[in-house]
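User: Continuing from earlier, I have the next pair ready.

Assistant: Great, send them over.

User: Here they are, in order.

Assistant: Folding the first of the pair now:
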Amino acid sequence: MIEVQKVNKSFQGKKILKDVSAVFVPGKVNMVIGKSGSGKTVLLKSLVGIHDIDSGAILFNKIDFTKIKQKDKINIRKEVGMLFQGSALFDSATIEENVMYPLDAFTDLSYKEKKKRADFCLDRVNMNDVNKLYPSELSGGMQKRAAIARAIALNPKYLFCDEPNSGLDPQTAIIIDKLIKEITYEYGITTVVNTHDMNSVFGISDSIVFINEGMAWWNGTRSMLFSSKNKELDDFLFSSEIMQRLKLKTV
Protein backbone atom coordinates (compact mmCIF):
# COMPACT_ATOMS: atom_id res chain seq x y z
CA MET A 1 0.00 0.00 0.00
CA ILE A 2 1.09 3.56 -0.71
CA GLU A 3 -0.11 6.35 1.55
CA VAL A 4 0.27 10.04 0.76
CA GLN A 5 -0.10 12.29 3.79
CA LYS A 6 -0.50 16.06 3.50
CA VAL A 7 2.09 16.40 0.73
CA ASN A 8 3.15 19.88 -0.37
CA LYS A 9 5.40 20.80 -3.28
CA SER A 10 6.36 24.19 -4.72
CA PHE A 11 8.45 25.33 -7.66
CA GLN A 12 9.99 28.82 -7.64
CA GLY A 13 7.58 29.94 -4.96
CA LYS A 14 4.48 28.59 -6.70
CA LYS A 15 2.66 25.94 -4.73
CA ILE A 16 1.77 22.98 -6.97
CA LEU A 17 0.63 20.37 -4.42
CA LYS A 18 -1.36 21.52 -1.42
CA ASP A 19 -1.80 19.13 1.52
CA VAL A 20 -2.52 16.19 -0.80
CA SER A 21 -3.55 12.97 0.95
CA ALA A 22 -4.48 9.70 -0.75
CA VAL A 23 -4.28 5.93 -0.35
CA PHE A 24 -3.33 3.63 -3.23
CA VAL A 25 -4.45 0.05 -2.68
CA PRO A 26 -2.41 -3.10 -3.57
CA GLY A 27 -3.71 -5.31 -6.35
CA LYS A 28 -5.82 -2.48 -7.76
CA VAL A 29 -5.62 0.06 -10.57
CA ASN A 30 -5.49 3.41 -8.77
CA MET A 31 -6.02 6.36 -11.09
CA VAL A 32 -5.06 10.00 -10.63
CA ILE A 33 -7.12 12.28 -12.85
CA GLY A 34 -7.33 16.02 -13.39
CA LYS A 35 -6.88 18.81 -15.89
CA SER A 36 -3.48 19.68 -17.37
CA GLY A 37 -1.62 21.75 -14.81
CA SER A 38 -3.64 20.40 -11.89
CA GLY A 39 -0.59 18.83 -10.24
CA LYS A 40 -1.19 15.16 -11.01
CA THR A 41 2.13 14.69 -12.84
CA VAL A 42 4.03 16.40 -10.03
CA LEU A 43 2.32 14.04 -7.59
CA LEU A 44 3.33 10.98 -9.60
CA LYS A 45 6.94 12.17 -9.88
CA SER A 46 6.97 12.85 -6.16
CA LEU A 47 5.80 9.31 -5.47
CA VAL A 48 8.71 7.80 -7.40
CA GLY A 49 11.26 10.21 -5.93
CA ILE A 50 11.94 12.31 -9.03
CA HIS A 51 10.78 15.35 -7.04
CA ASP A 52 11.58 15.91 -3.37
CA ILE A 53 8.50 17.13 -1.52
CA ASP A 54 8.53 20.21 0.71
CA SER A 55 6.51 18.63 3.52
CA GLY A 56 4.28 15.69 4.27
CA ALA A 57 4.93 11.98 3.98
CA ILE A 58 4.91 9.26 1.30
CA LEU A 59 4.68 5.79 2.82
CA PHE A 60 5.43 2.52 1.07
CA ASN A 61 4.02 -0.19 3.33
CA LYS A 62 4.30 2.14 6.35
CA ILE A 63 7.90 3.17 5.51
CA ASP A 64 8.25 6.93 4.93
CA PHE A 65 10.18 7.17 1.66
CA THR A 66 10.96 10.83 2.29
CA LYS A 67 12.83 10.20 5.54
CA ILE A 68 14.89 7.06 4.95
CA LYS A 69 18.56 6.85 3.95
CA GLN A 70 19.60 6.79 0.31
CA LYS A 71 20.53 3.08 0.37
CA ASP A 72 17.07 2.26 1.73
CA LYS A 73 15.49 4.38 -1.01
CA ILE A 74 17.37 2.32 -3.58
CA ASN A 75 15.91 -0.86 -2.08
CA ILE A 76 12.39 0.53 -2.52
CA ARG A 77 13.17 1.72 -6.05
CA LYS A 78 14.07 -1.88 -6.89
CA GLU A 79 10.43 -2.70 -6.18
CA VAL A 80 9.15 0.04 -8.51
CA GLY A 81 8.29 -0.28 -12.19
CA MET A 82 7.77 2.88 -14.24
CA LEU A 83 5.93 3.28 -17.52
CA PHE A 84 6.75 6.69 -18.97
CA GLN A 85 4.47 8.74 -21.19
CA GLY A 86 6.63 8.38 -24.28
CA SER A 87 7.72 4.80 -23.50
CA ALA A 88 11.30 6.14 -22.99
CA LEU A 89 12.97 3.18 -24.64
CA PHE A 90 16.67 3.54 -25.45
CA ASP A 91 16.85 4.06 -29.21
CA SER A 92 20.34 2.62 -29.54
CA ALA A 93 19.48 -0.58 -27.65
CA THR A 94 17.52 -3.59 -28.85
CA ILE A 95 14.16 -4.39 -27.27
CA GLU A 96 15.80 -7.24 -25.37
CA GLU A 97 18.51 -4.90 -24.06
CA ASN A 98 15.86 -2.37 -23.04
CA VAL A 99 13.96 -4.95 -21.01
CA MET A 100 17.18 -6.22 -19.44
CA TYR A 101 18.27 -2.72 -18.42
CA PRO A 102 16.75 -2.73 -14.89
CA LEU A 103 18.11 -6.24 -14.38
CA ASP A 104 21.58 -4.97 -15.33
CA ALA A 105 21.23 -2.02 -12.97
CA PHE A 106 19.75 -3.70 -9.91
CA THR A 107 20.60 -7.41 -9.94
CA ASP A 108 23.60 -9.73 -10.03
CA LEU A 109 21.89 -12.23 -12.30
CA SER A 110 23.91 -13.95 -15.00
CA TYR A 111 23.34 -12.98 -18.61
CA LYS A 112 21.48 -16.26 -19.16
CA GLU A 113 19.16 -15.53 -16.21
CA LYS A 114 18.53 -11.96 -17.35
CA LYS A 115 17.75 -13.09 -20.88
CA LYS A 116 15.34 -15.71 -19.56
CA ARG A 117 13.55 -13.04 -17.51
CA ALA A 118 13.45 -10.66 -20.49
CA ASP A 119 11.99 -13.42 -22.67
CA PHE A 120 9.33 -14.12 -20.04
CA CYS A 121 8.34 -10.45 -19.72
CA LEU A 122 8.16 -9.95 -23.47
CA ASP A 123 6.07 -13.10 -23.83
CA ARG A 124 3.76 -11.82 -21.06
CA VAL A 125 2.97 -8.70 -23.12
CA ASN A 126 2.58 -10.75 -26.32
CA MET A 127 5.83 -9.54 -27.84
CA ASN A 128 7.49 -12.64 -29.26
CA ASP A 129 10.31 -12.53 -31.81
CA VAL A 130 11.13 -8.84 -31.33
CA ASN A 131 14.18 -9.27 -29.06
CA LYS A 132 16.72 -8.12 -31.61
CA LEU A 133 14.64 -5.33 -33.10
CA TYR A 134 15.15 -1.65 -32.21
CA PRO A 135 12.40 0.69 -30.92
CA SER A 136 12.27 2.54 -34.25
CA GLU A 137 11.23 -0.72 -35.92
CA LEU A 138 8.12 -1.03 -33.75
CA SER A 139 4.74 0.70 -33.81
CA GLY A 140 3.76 3.03 -30.97
CA GLY A 141 1.60 0.36 -29.36
CA MET A 142 4.37 -2.24 -29.56
CA GLN A 143 6.82 0.23 -28.04
CA LYS A 144 4.40 0.75 -25.17
CA ARG A 145 4.11 -3.00 -24.62
CA ALA A 146 7.90 -3.31 -24.65
CA ALA A 147 8.04 -0.53 -22.05
CA ILE A 148 5.57 -2.48 -19.89
CA ALA A 149 7.78 -5.56 -20.21
CA ARG A 150 10.72 -3.48 -18.96
CA ALA A 151 8.61 -2.05 -16.14
CA ILE A 152 7.79 -5.53 -14.80
CA ALA A 153 11.27 -7.00 -15.32
CA LEU A 154 12.12 -6.70 -11.61
CA ASN A 155 8.75 -8.19 -10.59
CA PRO A 156 7.79 -4.91 -8.90
CA LYS A 157 5.42 -4.37 -6.00
CA TYR A 158 4.55 -0.93 -7.37
CA LEU A 159 3.83 0.16 -10.95
CA PHE A 160 3.56 3.82 -11.94
CA CYS A 161 2.15 4.75 -15.34
CA ASP A 162 2.31 8.30 -16.68
CA GLU A 163 -0.33 8.85 -19.38
CA PRO A 164 0.12 5.30 -20.76
CA ASN A 165 -2.26 5.86 -23.68
CA SER A 166 -0.76 9.13 -24.86
CA GLY A 167 -0.37 9.13 -28.65
CA LEU A 168 -2.14 5.80 -29.14
CA ASP A 169 -5.21 5.14 -31.26
CA PRO A 170 -8.34 4.09 -29.31
CA GLN A 171 -8.08 0.39 -30.17
CA THR A 172 -4.43 0.16 -29.13
CA ALA A 173 -5.20 2.15 -25.98
CA ILE A 174 -7.77 -0.49 -24.97
CA ILE A 175 -5.14 -3.21 -25.42
CA ILE A 176 -2.67 -1.33 -23.20
CA ASP A 177 -5.37 -0.71 -20.57
CA LYS A 178 -6.29 -4.39 -20.52
CA LEU A 179 -2.63 -5.36 -20.16
CA ILE A 180 -2.08 -2.97 -17.26
CA LYS A 181 -5.15 -4.33 -15.46
CA GLU A 182 -4.20 -7.97 -16.08
CA ILE A 183 -0.67 -7.46 -14.77
CA THR A 184 -1.94 -5.56 -11.73
CA TYR A 185 -4.36 -8.32 -10.76
CA GLU A 186 -2.06 -11.20 -11.71
CA TYR A 187 0.87 -10.02 -9.58
CA GLY A 188 -0.97 -8.09 -6.88
CA ILE A 189 0.80 -4.85 -7.79
CA THR A 190 -0.06 -1.43 -6.40
CA THR A 191 -0.62 0.34 -9.71
CA VAL A 192 -0.94 4.12 -9.96
CA VAL A 193 -1.98 5.56 -13.33
CA ASN A 194 -1.83 9.25 -14.11
CA THR A 195 -4.31 9.96 -16.91
CA HIS A 196 -6.87 12.27 -18.44
CA ASP A 197 -8.19 9.48 -20.69
CA MET A 198 -11.74 8.88 -19.48
CA ASN A 199 -11.98 5.71 -21.56
CA SER A 200 -9.30 4.28 -19.26
CA VAL A 201 -11.00 5.62 -16.14
CA PHE A 202 -14.33 4.00 -17.02
CA GLY A 203 -12.62 0.88 -18.39
CA ILE A 204 -10.12 -0.29 -15.78
CA SER A 205 -9.99 1.97 -12.71
CA ASP A 206 -10.68 0.55 -9.25
CA SER A 207 -10.10 3.72 -7.24
CA ILE A 208 -9.80 7.32 -8.39
CA VAL A 209 -8.22 10.46 -6.97
CA PHE A 210 -9.27 13.71 -8.64
CA ILE A 211 -6.63 16.44 -8.37
CA ASN A 212 -7.89 19.99 -8.78
CA GLU A 213 -5.72 23.10 -8.38
CA GLY A 214 -3.09 21.07 -6.55
CA MET A 215 -5.50 19.53 -4.04
CA ALA A 216 -7.00 16.06 -3.67
CA TRP A 217 -10.50 17.29 -4.46
CA TRP A 218 -12.36 13.96 -4.55
CA ASN A 219 -11.69 10.24 -4.25
CA GLY A 220 -13.87 7.22 -4.85
CA THR A 221 -14.63 4.51 -7.39
CA ARG A 222 -15.79 4.78 -11.00
CA SER A 223 -19.31 3.76 -9.94
CA MET A 224 -19.36 6.81 -7.65
CA LEU A 225 -18.33 9.33 -10.31
CA PHE A 226 -21.85 10.30 -11.37
CA SER A 227 -23.20 10.59 -7.83
CA SER A 228 -20.36 12.71 -6.44
CA LYS A 229 -22.27 16.02 -6.37
CA ASN A 230 -18.87 17.66 -6.75
CA LYS A 231 -19.10 20.60 -9.16
CA GLU A 232 -15.42 20.66 -10.12
CA LEU A 233 -15.38 16.92 -10.78
CA ASP A 234 -18.59 17.17 -12.82
CA ASP A 235 -17.13 20.02 -14.87
CA PHE A 236 -14.02 17.94 -15.54
CA LEU A 237 -15.98 14.83 -16.48
CA PHE A 238 -18.42 16.55 -18.80
CA SER A 239 -15.65 18.45 -20.57
CA SER A 240 -13.99 15.17 -21.60
CA GLU A 241 -14.38 13.82 -25.13
CA ILE A 242 -16.00 10.56 -24.06
CA MET A 243 -18.60 12.38 -21.98
CA GLN A 244 -19.38 14.74 -24.85
CA ARG A 245 -20.07 11.72 -27.05
CA LEU A 246 -22.34 10.18 -24.42
CA LYS A 247 -24.13 13.50 -24.04
CA LEU A 248 -24.75 13.74 -27.78
CA LYS A 249 -26.25 10.23 -27.85
CA THR A 250 -28.87 11.25 -25.31
CA VAL A 251 -29.95 14.35 -27.21
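And the other member of the pair:
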Amino acid sequence: MKITVIGAGHVGATTAQRIVDRELANECVLVDIVEGIPQGKALDMWESTPCSGSDCRIIGTNTYEETANSDLVIITAGLARKPGMSRDDLLAKNVQIVKSVTEQVMKFSPNTMILVVSNPLDAMVYTAQKISGLPHKRVFGMAGVLDTSRYRSFIALELGVSSKDIQALVLGGHGDTMVPLPRYTMVGGIPLPELLSQEQIDAIVERTRKGGSEIVGLLKTGSAYYATSAAVAEMVESVVKDKKRILPCAAYLQGEYGLSGIYLGVPIKIGKDGVEQVFELKLNAEEKAALENSAKAVRELTAKINL
Protein backbone atom coordinates (compact mmCIF):
# COMPACT_ATOMS: atom_id res chain seq x y z
CA MET A 1 0.00 0.00 0.00
CA LYS A 2 1.29 3.41 -0.99
CA ILE A 3 -0.31 6.40 0.72
CA THR A 4 0.17 10.06 -0.12
CA VAL A 5 -0.65 12.89 2.28
CA ILE A 6 -1.11 16.28 0.63
CA GLY A 7 -0.29 19.13 2.99
CA ALA A 8 2.54 19.06 5.54
CA GLY A 9 0.96 21.37 8.08
CA HIS A 10 -0.11 20.22 11.53
CA VAL A 11 -2.93 17.96 10.26
CA GLY A 12 -0.99 16.47 7.35
CA ALA A 13 2.26 15.92 9.21
CA THR A 14 0.54 14.39 12.24
CA THR A 15 -1.52 12.15 9.95
CA ALA A 16 1.65 11.00 8.19
CA GLN A 17 3.28 10.31 11.56
CA ARG A 18 0.35 8.13 12.62
CA ILE A 19 0.48 6.21 9.33
CA VAL A 20 4.21 5.62 9.75
CA ASP A 21 3.99 4.68 13.44
CA ARG A 22 1.11 2.25 12.83
CA GLU A 23 2.80 0.90 9.70
CA LEU A 24 -0.34 1.39 7.61
CA ALA A 25 1.66 1.62 4.39
CA ASN A 26 4.85 0.35 2.84
CA GLU A 27 5.50 3.82 1.51
CA CYS A 28 4.15 7.22 2.55
CA VAL A 29 4.70 10.41 0.57
CA LEU A 30 4.26 13.83 2.20
CA VAL A 31 3.63 16.70 -0.23
CA ASP A 32 3.64 20.45 0.37
CA ILE A 33 4.32 23.55 -1.72
CA VAL A 34 6.74 25.05 0.81
CA GLU A 35 10.26 24.00 -0.09
CA GLY A 36 12.05 22.00 2.58
CA ILE A 37 9.07 21.53 4.92
CA PRO A 38 7.83 18.14 3.68
CA GLN A 39 11.40 16.94 3.13
CA GLY A 40 12.48 17.92 6.62
CA LYS A 41 9.43 16.54 8.38
CA ALA A 42 9.55 13.29 6.41
CA LEU A 43 13.24 12.83 7.17
CA ASP A 44 12.58 13.43 10.87
CA MET A 45 9.80 10.82 10.81
CA TRP A 46 11.96 8.33 8.92
CA GLU A 47 14.71 8.72 11.49
CA SER A 48 12.17 7.87 14.21
CA THR A 49 11.23 4.50 12.71
CA PRO A 50 14.06 2.52 14.39
CA CYS A 51 12.57 3.63 17.72
CA SER A 52 8.95 2.91 16.75
CA GLY A 53 9.79 -0.36 15.01
CA SER A 54 8.06 0.67 11.79
CA ASP A 55 9.32 -0.27 8.33
CA CYS A 56 7.14 2.29 6.54
CA ARG A 57 9.34 4.39 4.25
CA ILE A 58 8.38 8.07 4.14
CA ILE A 59 9.64 10.76 1.79
CA GLY A 60 8.82 14.45 1.43
CA THR A 61 8.46 16.36 -1.81
CA ASN A 62 7.21 19.57 -3.41
CA THR A 63 6.12 17.86 -6.63
CA TYR A 64 3.72 15.06 -7.51
CA GLU A 65 5.92 12.69 -9.51
CA GLU A 66 6.84 10.81 -6.33
CA THR A 67 3.15 10.21 -5.58
CA ALA A 68 2.69 8.06 -8.70
CA ASN A 69 0.55 4.95 -8.26
CA SER A 70 -0.70 5.88 -4.81
CA ASP A 71 -3.42 3.54 -3.56
CA LEU A 72 -4.85 6.21 -1.26
CA VAL A 73 -4.42 9.99 -1.26
CA ILE A 74 -5.30 12.03 1.81
CA ILE A 75 -5.95 15.72 1.13
CA THR A 76 -5.33 17.98 4.13
CA ALA A 77 -4.10 21.00 2.16
CA GLY A 78 -5.90 24.29 2.60
CA LEU A 79 -6.17 27.31 4.83
CA ALA A 80 -6.82 26.59 8.50
CA ARG A 81 -9.51 28.41 10.41
CA LYS A 82 -8.67 31.40 12.55
CA PRO A 83 -10.67 32.71 15.52
CA GLY A 84 -14.01 34.08 14.37
CA MET A 85 -13.77 32.33 11.01
CA SER A 86 -16.40 29.76 10.07
CA ARG A 87 -15.77 26.78 7.84
CA ASP A 88 -17.85 28.53 5.20
CA ASP A 89 -15.39 31.43 5.14
CA LEU A 90 -12.77 29.02 3.85
CA LEU A 91 -14.82 27.95 0.86
CA ALA A 92 -13.54 30.02 -2.07
CA LYS A 93 -9.84 29.69 -1.30
CA ASN A 94 -9.90 26.04 -0.38
CA VAL A 95 -11.98 25.07 -3.42
CA GLN A 96 -9.14 26.33 -5.62
CA ILE A 97 -6.53 24.52 -3.53
CA VAL A 98 -8.40 21.19 -3.53
CA LYS A 99 -9.15 21.54 -7.25
CA SER A 100 -5.47 22.08 -8.09
CA VAL A 101 -4.31 19.28 -5.79
CA THR A 102 -6.83 16.81 -7.21
CA GLU A 103 -5.81 17.60 -10.78
CA GLN A 104 -2.17 16.86 -9.94
CA VAL A 105 -3.04 13.70 -8.05
CA MET A 106 -5.02 12.28 -10.97
CA LYS A 107 -2.15 12.82 -13.41
CA PHE A 108 -0.03 10.32 -11.53
CA SER A 109 -2.54 8.10 -9.72
CA PRO A 110 -5.66 7.74 -11.90
CA ASN A 111 -6.91 4.68 -9.99
CA THR A 112 -6.44 5.98 -6.46
CA MET A 113 -8.94 6.57 -3.67
CA ILE A 114 -9.22 10.05 -2.16
CA LEU A 115 -9.89 10.81 1.50
CA VAL A 116 -10.60 14.51 2.03
CA VAL A 117 -9.90 16.28 5.33
CA SER A 118 -9.79 19.93 4.16
CA ASN A 119 -12.58 22.26 5.29
CA PRO A 120 -15.35 23.03 4.68
CA LEU A 121 -15.34 19.25 4.53
CA ASP A 122 -18.51 18.24 2.71
CA ALA A 123 -17.96 20.84 -0.01
CA MET A 124 -14.32 19.82 -0.43
CA VAL A 125 -15.25 16.14 -0.89
CA TYR A 126 -17.74 17.24 -3.54
CA THR A 127 -15.00 19.26 -5.24
CA ALA A 128 -12.49 16.40 -5.21
CA GLN A 129 -14.98 13.96 -6.70
CA LYS A 130 -16.10 16.33 -9.46
CA ILE A 131 -12.53 17.14 -10.46
CA SER A 132 -11.21 13.57 -10.20
CA GLY A 133 -14.12 11.89 -11.95
CA LEU A 134 -13.57 8.88 -9.71
CA PRO A 135 -16.55 6.71 -8.68
CA HIS A 136 -18.29 8.22 -5.69
CA LYS A 137 -17.41 5.26 -3.49
CA ARG A 138 -13.71 6.00 -4.00
CA VAL A 139 -13.95 9.61 -2.79
CA PHE A 140 -15.04 10.20 0.80
CA GLY A 141 -14.39 12.52 3.69
CA MET A 142 -13.33 12.47 7.31
CA ALA A 143 -16.00 14.17 9.40
CA GLY A 144 -18.17 12.02 11.60
CA VAL A 145 -15.29 9.99 13.02
CA LEU A 146 -13.80 13.17 14.48
CA ASP A 147 -17.16 14.55 15.59
CA THR A 148 -18.07 11.24 17.19
CA SER A 149 -14.72 11.07 18.96
CA ARG A 150 -15.34 14.50 20.48
CA TYR A 151 -18.88 13.52 21.41
CA ARG A 152 -17.69 10.31 23.09
CA SER A 153 -14.91 12.09 24.97
CA PHE A 154 -17.36 14.64 26.40
CA ILE A 155 -19.75 11.88 27.47
CA ALA A 156 -16.90 9.96 29.12
CA LEU A 157 -15.88 13.11 30.98
CA GLU A 158 -19.42 13.78 32.19
CA LEU A 159 -20.02 10.20 33.35
CA GLY A 160 -16.50 9.45 34.57
CA VAL A 161 -16.28 6.28 32.49
CA SER A 162 -13.97 4.88 29.83
CA SER A 163 -14.57 6.21 26.33
CA LYS A 164 -13.95 2.65 25.09
CA ASP A 165 -17.37 1.67 26.39
CA ILE A 166 -19.18 4.43 24.51
CA GLN A 167 -20.64 3.84 21.06
CA ALA A 168 -22.15 6.81 19.29
CA LEU A 169 -23.01 8.35 15.94
CA VAL A 170 -22.92 11.87 14.58
CA LEU A 171 -24.62 12.49 11.23
CA GLY A 172 -24.85 15.43 8.85
CA GLY A 173 -22.46 18.12 7.72
CA HIS A 174 -19.14 18.68 9.45
CA GLY A 175 -19.94 21.93 11.20
CA ASP A 176 -22.52 23.68 13.35
CA THR A 177 -25.40 21.74 11.76
CA MET A 178 -24.03 18.28 12.60
CA VAL A 179 -26.55 15.89 14.13
CA PRO A 180 -25.41 13.90 17.19
CA LEU A 181 -27.85 11.08 17.96
CA PRO A 182 -28.28 10.56 21.74
CA ARG A 183 -30.95 7.92 21.05
CA TYR A 184 -28.35 5.79 19.26
CA THR A 185 -25.66 6.46 21.88
CA MET A 186 -24.80 3.56 24.16
CA VAL A 187 -22.60 3.47 27.26
CA GLY A 188 -21.69 -0.13 27.98
CA GLY A 189 -24.94 -1.12 26.26
CA ILE A 190 -27.01 1.37 28.29
CA PRO A 191 -28.85 4.07 26.29
CA LEU A 192 -27.45 7.52 27.07
CA PRO A 193 -30.87 9.04 27.99
CA GLU A 194 -31.03 6.58 30.92
CA LEU A 195 -27.76 7.94 32.34
CA LEU A 196 -27.94 11.70 31.74
CA SER A 197 -30.67 14.31 31.87
CA GLN A 198 -31.85 16.01 28.71
CA GLU A 199 -30.16 19.20 29.89
CA GLN A 200 -26.81 17.40 30.27
CA ILE A 201 -27.19 15.75 26.87
CA ASP A 202 -28.06 19.06 25.20
CA ALA A 203 -24.93 20.66 26.68
CA ILE A 204 -22.73 17.82 25.37
CA VAL A 205 -24.35 18.01 21.93
CA GLU A 206 -23.77 21.77 21.79
CA ARG A 207 -20.13 21.40 22.85
CA THR A 208 -19.65 18.72 20.19
CA ARG A 209 -21.04 21.00 17.49
CA LYS A 210 -18.63 23.74 18.51
CA GLY A 211 -15.71 21.40 19.24
CA GLY A 212 -13.57 22.68 16.39
CA SER A 213 -14.28 26.33 17.19
CA GLU A 214 -13.41 25.76 20.84
CA ILE A 215 -9.94 24.52 19.92
CA VAL A 216 -9.42 27.27 17.33
CA GLY A 217 -10.28 29.83 20.00
CA LEU A 218 -7.75 28.36 22.40
CA LEU A 219 -4.91 27.90 19.89
CA LYS A 220 -5.53 31.28 18.22
CA THR A 221 -3.07 30.51 15.40
CA GLY A 222 -4.32 27.15 14.16
CA SER A 223 -6.95 24.45 14.33
CA ALA A 224 -7.28 20.93 15.75
CA TYR A 225 -4.92 18.25 14.50
CA TYR A 226 -4.32 15.55 17.13
CA ALA A 227 -7.92 14.29 17.16
CA THR A 228 -8.27 15.00 13.44
CA SER A 229 -5.27 12.89 12.49
CA ALA A 230 -6.38 10.09 14.85
CA ALA A 231 -9.76 10.02 13.11
CA VAL A 232 -8.09 9.87 9.68
CA ALA A 233 -5.84 7.03 10.81
CA GLU A 234 -8.89 5.05 11.96
CA MET A 235 -10.40 5.34 8.49
CA VAL A 236 -7.11 4.56 6.76
CA GLU A 237 -6.65 1.41 8.82
CA SER A 238 -10.09 0.17 7.81
CA VAL A 239 -9.22 0.69 4.13
CA VAL A 240 -5.69 -0.74 4.28
CA LYS A 241 -6.62 -3.80 6.33
CA ASP A 242 -10.07 -4.18 4.74
CA LYS A 243 -11.54 -4.21 8.25
CA LYS A 244 -14.95 -3.11 6.99
CA ARG A 245 -15.50 -0.86 10.01
CA ILE A 246 -18.83 0.92 10.35
CA LEU A 247 -17.83 4.55 10.72
CA PRO A 248 -19.62 7.88 10.21
CA CYS A 249 -18.00 9.51 7.17
CA ALA A 250 -18.89 11.99 4.45
CA ALA A 251 -20.27 9.76 1.70
CA TYR A 252 -22.31 10.33 -1.46
CA LEU A 253 -26.03 9.74 -0.99
CA GLN A 254 -28.26 8.30 -3.69
CA GLY A 255 -31.67 8.26 -2.07
CA GLU A 256 -30.67 7.25 1.45
CA TYR A 257 -32.44 9.34 4.11
CA GLY A 258 -34.48 10.81 1.26
CA LEU A 259 -31.41 12.69 0.01
CA SER A 260 -29.59 12.45 -3.32
CA GLY A 261 -26.65 14.07 -5.09
CA ILE A 262 -24.96 15.24 -1.92
CA TYR A 263 -21.99 14.31 0.26
CA LEU A 264 -23.08 14.10 3.89
CA GLY A 265 -21.98 12.41 7.09
CA VAL A 266 -23.64 8.99 7.48
CA PRO A 267 -22.62 5.59 8.85
CA ILE A 268 -20.85 3.55 6.19
CA LYS A 269 -18.98 0.28 5.83
CA ILE A 270 -15.48 1.22 4.77
CA GLY A 271 -12.97 -1.25 3.33
CA LYS A 272 -10.45 -1.81 0.56
CA ASP A 273 -12.93 -0.57 -2.07
CA GLY A 274 -13.76 2.60 -0.17
CA VAL A 275 -17.41 3.18 0.69
CA GLU A 276 -18.85 -0.32 0.44
CA GLN A 277 -22.26 0.33 1.98
CA VAL A 278 -24.32 3.20 3.39
CA PHE A 279 -26.44 2.34 6.42
CA GLU A 280 -29.79 4.07 6.71
CA LEU A 281 -31.01 4.54 10.28
CA LYS A 282 -34.63 4.92 11.30
CA LEU A 283 -34.84 8.53 12.44
CA ASN A 284 -37.65 10.11 14.38
CA ALA A 285 -39.25 13.34 13.17
CA GLU A 286 -36.90 15.59 15.15
CA GLU A 287 -33.76 13.77 14.00
CA LYS A 288 -34.94 13.70 10.39
CA ALA A 289 -35.66 17.43 10.45
CA ALA A 290 -32.20 18.13 11.89
CA LEU A 291 -30.54 16.01 9.19
CA GLU A 292 -32.52 17.72 6.44
CA ASN A 293 -31.50 21.10 7.87
CA SER A 294 -27.87 20.00 7.82
CA ALA A 295 -28.22 18.78 4.24
CA LYS A 296 -29.76 22.11 3.27
CA ALA A 297 -26.73 23.96 4.67
CA VAL A 298 -24.37 21.67 2.73
CA ARG A 299 -26.34 22.15 -0.50
CA GLU A 300 -26.26 25.93 -0.08
CA LEU A 301 -22.50 25.74 0.32
CA THR A 302 -21.83 23.46 -2.64
CA ALA A 303 -24.11 25.61 -4.79
CA LYS A 304 -21.55 28.41 -4.42
CA ILE A 305 -18.79 26.26 -5.91
CA ASN A 306 -17.89 27.17 -9.48
CA LEU A 307 -15.81 24.46 -11.10
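Worth noting for the second one:
The mean pLDDT is 95. Residues 177 and 297 are 8 Å apart (CA to CA).
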